[in-house]
Design a protein that fits this description.
The chain is an alpha+beta fold and about 425 residues long. It folds into two domains: about 220 residues, Enterococcus faecalis V583 fold (Alpha-Beta Complex); about 170 residues, v583 fold (Alpha-Beta Complex), CATH 3.90.1700.10. The protein has 14 helices and 15 strands. The strands form five sheets. Strands 5-4-1-6 form a four-stranded antiparallel β-sheet. Helix 5 crosses helix 8 and helix 6 crosses helix 7. The two termini are about 15 Å apart.
């Protein structure tokens, strides 16, 4: 008889022991496993073009324009419909991407190495808020910004990170940021400043052009989400360390593509369990309403998977001004998540709860027993391609994916 609790203890201990280090910034084609010139990675579980949401389609079009594989929107769509483009989930290539998550061959990706267990994860650069590729926008301003980020800023950051004496300890950065009012998903103001503090002297050391140096540091400093992408890669490295433990019912990935919400479980291999995404509820930018919102999208739920984001809202009461809630709700959100997890994180502690460890290790059994699904903080994309971000809010995954995963677990391990 399999000892599920022992398997879960092994998985969550591996997750907490993982030490992700930001060690580089490289071209996706050169480092992401299985990357090809005509392959686009996307957020969430597998999906084909006919079922893609508006923001994901917009990001695909933008990536093809950026790569020079298409001259305009019409030729981009024609290329996809002719079968000239391949698609795969970021998660299946050791990668994560916020919102649409589209990652193409020539984009630069952060390289985050888990020095405890030896696995590596990747994530693209963060563009900031608003009208950006990851929210499905692809006009010339979006493409111009991407080109600057990947051809001017990127090489400077790559050289700076390489000069960083072993890299940046992402776990340590997160632990400190949680004590400074971040929750690590939608609120990363403190973490981004800590990232800038580490990065600035390195940029100054390696960049000979003072104008470029100023532009790079200003871009990083003005973007309160600048650290989100290396944080996501760090969380991916942690979660992957917990994946593949026989008999474990721990969730090792939660991800959304704007159509389907996908779940993977440590003891069930690479199988995805999916159901339709819910639409976030929250605060809208001027001129937009809930009727404009696309269903939930992005790989950034990897943060909740390891116990931060919506699971750590108690330590970030100011997040409620962005996602629409109250400080008391933020506290209660974290307390609720202890009911569906198997551990309290040894490194991620929460001052508002007397430095109690963040709830970590989602157990599909506990989700079904309690009927409580994970809390998620998220941005909101417009449902139509090309528009971009229209707000931010809160959402939960559908209970059906946990039910399907538990049934599959029972069948695989002879418990049915």
């Amino acid at each position: 008889m399999i000892d599920i609790d022992a398997a879960n203890t092994t998985a969550v201990e591996r997750l907490m022991a993982a030490r992700p280090m930001l060690t580089g910034l490289r071209r996706a084609l050169d480092v992401v496993p299985g990357m090809k010139p005509n392959l686009l990675l996307h957020a969430g579980p597998p999906i084909a073009w006919p079922r893609m949401s508006g923001p994901l389609r917009g990001a695909v079009i933008g990536a093809l324009l950026y790569e020079g594989l298409a001259a305009d929107e019409a030729s981009a769509v024609a290329l996809v419909e002719s079968g000239g483009v391949e698609f795969a989930p970021c998660h299946e290539h050791d990668t994560v991407g916020p919102m649409a998550g589209v990652t193409s061959a020539s984009m630069l990706v952060y390289v985050v190495e888990n020095v405890t267990h030896g696995n590596t994860a990747y994530s693209i650069l963060n563009e900031g808020y608003g009208k950006v590729l990851r929210y499905g926008a692809y006009n010339e301003d979006v493409l111009k910004r991407l080109r600057w980020m990947n051809t001017v800023m990127g090489p400077v950051l790559a050289e700076a990170i390489a000069a960083g004496d072993g890299g940046l300890d992402v776990r340590a950065l997160l632990a400190e940021a949680l004590h400074m009012g971040d929750e690590g998903h939608n609120r990363n103001k403190a973490g981004s400043l800590l990232y800038l503090k580490w990065l600035a002297p390195l940029v100054a050391r390696v960049c000979a052009d003072s104008a470029v140096e100023g532009d790079v540091l200003k871009f990083i400093g003005d973007n309160a989400l600048s650290v989100l992408n290396p944080v996501m890669a760090g969380c991916k490295a942690m979660a992957d360390a917990a994946h593949g433990v026989a008999g474990s019912t721990l969730v090792s990935a939660m991800a959304r593509n704007g159509t389907d919400f996908g779940l993977r479980v440590s003891g069930l291999g690479g199988r995805w369990f999916t159901a339709p995404c819910e639409t976030p509820q929250g605060l809208w930018f001027p001129g937009f309403t809930a009727a404009d919102a696309n269903p939930d999208i992005g790989d950034s739920t990897i943060t909740e998977t390891v116990g931060i984001g919506g699971f750590a809202m108690a330590t970030a009461p100011a997040i409620v001004t962005f996602v629409g809630s109250t400080p008391k709700d933020a506290l209660n959100a974290t307390l609720e998540m202890y009911e569906i997890t198997v551990a309290e994180h040894k490194s991620f502690t929460l001052p508002a709860l007397d430095f109690r460890g963040a709830p970590t290790g989602i157990d599909i059994r506990k989700v079904i027993e309690t009927g409580i699904t994970p809390r998620i903080n998220t941005g909101v994309a417009h449902k139509n391609a090309g528009v971009g971000q229209i707000g931010a809010g809160l959402v939960r995954p559908p209970l059906a994916i946990f039910e399907a995963a538990l049934l599959a677990y029972a069948e695989q391990y002879g418990l049915a």
